[in-house]
Predict the 3D structure of the following.
Amino acid sequence: MGGLTLTIITAKATSLNYGENVGNVSILKKLSLADGSQKTFVSDKALKYDMRRKGREENDWRLLDEKLKEHIKNSLRNDNFDVDSFGKALIKHYEEFDLFGGLFTNLRTEDGRKIVKKDKKKKKDDITLSYGDSVKRSCPVKVTYAFSISKFSGDINFLNNIDAYNRYIKHVEDEKDQSIPTSEEHTSHYLYTVTVDLDRIGVWEKEDGTAEEVLDNKEKTKRVLDLLDILKTLNRQIRGRWESLSPVFVVGGVFSVKHPFFIEGVEAVEDEDKLWLNVQRLKESFGYLPDGETPVVGILSGVFKNEEEIRKTLGAVSVVDAFNKFKNQVREYYGVSEV
């Protein structure tokens, strides 16, 4: 048994995740703290979206697409739909489904026939599922929200563009006056955790509790190494901006117990435009690790006010070296030297 877990502090980034608009005001996603203050956050859905995007752009990942109908057709057995065949095909052909899971509840064949759970009231044209009433896979890669290190202070930005209005908006929208939208703004480092169940990568789990290997260890290793490369250079493209979420600090590794060990151990605050890390708290969190197992700590120079303490007490290396160590641990876990 083994799990990979990383807790990451990102580079400073601005206004990463908006919710619903209120009138002309774009509202950042926020949570309130016990003292009444607020922190902004990036949802796990938004983070996974960018992980998948980078996987497609940089590692040729196949995302779920129109080919699903082909896999549905290939999983039909005498008007019975073989859920296991369908699930295994999705794991094999789609990194997205393998790593991040999925749920299918309204499957239809190319001719529109609905695939439903077998029961006495089923229509004549329906195709029955081999078991259950859905095809689902819970994600082996769990991602938390990314919470801002600094608190939100209510900053806003007026987004009027008089040049665009004078050139074309007033002609297209036939408006006498320009409508001035407003956007909440917040710049901060962000903190989040990723935990990967290495035993579930490339494995299809049946509803009867058994599991079947779909990928060999080489392909499993490749997919996890791809994910590590993505996390190392993660970014958000939002509202004409390209915001870096590359780590300035990371702690983690591959451990024999699957658990987000450092999710409460990493505490940082801004201090005179630099970060200060609570080294003692993080060091105490190492006590939750299985006996004899130690984490890898990576840090980017010049970001932390107590950098010397971090390097000396935690044995921190560079962020790049830390990710290379994570990769070696994954290779060792799967018993693969080259991918």
